[in-house]
Design a protein that fits this description.
The complex is a heterodimer of chains A (497) and B (123). Chain A contains 20 helices and 2 strands. With 497 residues, chain A is an all-alpha fold. In chain A, strands 1-2 form a two-stranded antiparallel sheet. By secondary structure, chain B is mainly α. In chain B, helix 2 packs antiparallel against helix 3 and helix 3 packs antiparallel against helix 4. Classes of the chains: A mainly alpha (497), B mainly alpha (123). At the A-B interface, helix 5 and helix 6 of A face helix 2, helix 3, helix 4 and helix 5 of B.
């Protein structure tokens, strides 16, 4: 086996080792370790992506020496490699951008703990993307839950502790349901590896046996992972958890952790159960309906919030709705749109969180819109970063959000029927709402500041500048390079299913 | 009805899962929420073990040189339960630690009261 095929395994082990050793390192070094780790993971996965695209294949990698029905294995294709590259880059910039604030918001002795958690989030994301074993998926779900809870409460005040508690409670309900679903799947099929389950499920579906348990299992997977990824009616924990934690934590949570759960759900639906079976049981309509409702309700909640960070947090609910609606169409074009939107949202949302905390810093630490007037002039770079990402989410041409809305509409036309009309209407309405709250904020940022207000403007730190420049470049690149990226996603999905 | 009698463990497990789930979701007291969490997880392990147990077979540890697979049960469900227990122990530990923190700060275990007290503080 060529060396390059060991890279996924190296990446997972490296993140674990860095995470564990960061616990013993001083904060300053631990932060550098995290950034370098994310860069290395991104580089290794880019090499892997190029290799896999040239070969046009995906492969299985045995973890241990036991072959298929017994052993544990990971599976790597272009889709997984592409997403890993993006997530590690986003994590790197989030860590860089959050560093300066970390010094002020976190007890200096506990600074390295934040880095431990970031490394573990990276390890969990990689494993959840790569794993081919359902139970390994569950173990990493729990590792991610613990790591993200610790990330929320590393800034120790009343609000973060309460929101960490709420996050934990909702998350544990979700993982309980997921574990129940895994148990039922094992009982129904007798396997834990995804391909073996697929065969057994297809046979069960064709024979018409155990139709009710199968439906319940898929439903449990959906609700369990839906709670964890903040799908609309289950999103109650989200605003506080994202709104009050450190910027690095909220950027990571919104752009990486929740996306990893969605991708695991996608793996379960597309590879483990098969979209044919899901469509046959009409369960994809469930995803579609929840997604559409989330698209509208998330934006409405965002409009009603008076606090910049909470607004950005609520806008995640709407964007996650897009992803679920795309998946709910159950056709390949819908899945392509969903994956592309995951990438767009991941880049845009983390840069919104990082730049909005910078904007709040130059406005005497206030996140209220009335105090944020003129913040874009006081911190030009953060203003540009916020504007570009907001424009991407709204769907201004050339940027990623526009392409993703285009791909969503194409998928809707391909699907036809009532779904097409619902999807197009929801897209139009949601875009309108996005414009209302995001562009209103952008305008606020560039309005003259209120009279008689004195602001102290510090020079931004180098790491923060690097992160924000990086985010701007990343957001623009995702839009400009949309065609090659979409090609990789299409190839990846064909190998994925 | 006959099915209920022969699958008594599964029926009990699902009932316990429901009890644990609703306690974790609806109970106001943080300690009781944690108890609910443990009941929920234990119910799943009960179901796993009852599914994995085959009457008349023994644990997969070779005894008296019997290599015939039909003499032993499948070790995977038991292995999964062990892993699951480790996971739920660590989750419980974290929840308890958080509860201690919250109690020291707000002197109550009621999550609604804690939320009210928290809103009284400034950001």
């Amino acid at each position: 086996m060529p060396l390059i095929r060991n890279f996924p395994f190296f990446c997972i082990m490296l993140s674990m080792i860095c995470g564990i050793s960061s616990a013993m390192l001083p904060g300053k070094i631990a932060r550098k370790v995290t950034v370098v780790l994310a860069a290395v993971v991104a580089a290794l996965n880019t090499a892997l992506l190029v290799h896999l695209m040239q070969a046009g294949e995906s492969y299985h990698y045995l973890m241990g020496h036991f072959p298929a029905p017994w052993g544990n294995e990971i599976r790597i294709g272009p889709l997984e490699a592409l997403l890993c590259v993006l997530f590690s880059i986003v994590l790197m910039f989030s860590a860089l951008g959050g560093m300066y604030r970390l010094k002020r918001q976190v007890d200096p002795k506990k600074e390295n703990t934040v880095c431990v958690m970031l490394d573990l989030v990276l390890a969990g994301t990689l494993s959840m993307l790569y794993t081919n074993d359902l139970f390994t998926g569950y173990v990493f779900i729990e590792i991610m839950t613990l790591a993200s809870c610790a990330l929320i409460m590393c800034r120790q005040n009343g609000r973060t502790m309460v929101s960490a508690m709420r996050y934990m409670i909702m998350s544990l309900l979700g993982s309980g349901m997921t574990l129940m679903a895994i148990m039922l799947t094992y009982t129904l099929t007798g396997h834990l590896l995804i391909e073996n389950i697929r065969e057994a499920v297809t046979a069960l579906y064709v024979s018409g046996q155990y139709r009710a348990p199968l439906t319940v299992t898929i439903g449990l997977f959906f609700v369990g992972l839906g709670i964890k990824s903040a799908l609309f009616p289950f999103h109650t924990w989200l605003a506080d958890a994202y709104g009050y934690s450190t910027p690095a934590a909220s950027a990571t949570l919104s752009s990486i952790v929740s996306k990893a759960y969605i991708l695991l759900l996608m793996k379960i639906f597309v590879r483990m159960i098969g979209m044919d079976v899901v469509r046959g049981l009409h369960l994809n309509d469930l995803l579609f309906v929840f997604g559409i409702i989330a698209m509208i309700m998330g934006s409405l909640s965002a409009m009603h919030s008076h606090d910049l960070r909470r607004m950005v947090a609520y806008s995640s609910v709407a964007q996650i709705g897009y992803i679920y609606a795309g998946m709910g169409m159950g056709i390949e074009a819908g899945l392509v749109a969903a994956v592309y939107h995951i990438m767009i949202h991941s880049a845009a949302k983390s840069s919104l969180f990082i730049s909005s905390s910078e904007l709040a810093d130059v406005s005497s630490g206030s996140k209220r819109f009335s105090d944020l007037r003129g913040a874009g002039k006081r911190s030009p770079l953060a203003g540009v970063c916020f504007t570009i990402s907001a424009m991407s989410l709204v769907g201004v041409p050339v940027l990623g959000g526009f392409i993703s809305k285009l791909v969503f509409s194409e998928a809707a036309f391909q699907y036809g029927g009532i779904h097409m009309w619902v999807m197009l209407l929801a897209l139009a309405l949601s875009t309108l709402l996005n414009v209302l709250y995001l562009m209103k904020t952008v305008i606020t940022l560039y309005r003259p500041a209120r009279d008689g207000m004195e602001y102290t403007v510090e020079k931004p730190d180098t790491a923060g500048v690097c992160a924000m420049v990086g985010f701007v470049v990343l957001n623009v690149l995702l839009g400009v390079l949309s065609q090659p990226i979409l090609t990789v996603i299409r190839t990846g999905l064909q190998l994925f299913a | 009805m006959e099915m209920f009698a022969t699958h008594i463990e599964e029926v009990v497990a699902v009932l316990l899962f429901g009890v644990g789930f609703t306690t974790l979701l609806l109970h106001r007291n943080l300690i009781k929420k944690i108890i609910g969490l443990n009941i929920m997880d234990t119910a799943i392990y009960l179901m796993f073990t009852s599914v994995g147990y085959v009457e008349g077979r023994t644990a997969p540890i070779m005894e008296n040189g019997i290599t015939d697979a039909s003499h032993y049960i499948n070790p995977i469900p038991s292995g999964l339960v062990l892993t699951g227990i480790v996971v739920s122990v660590s989750v419980t530990a974290l929840m308890l630690a958080l509860t201690v923190r919250l109690y020291r700060r707000y002197h109550t275990l009621n999550i609604d009261r804690i939320t009210l007290l928290m809103k009284g503080e400034d950001d």
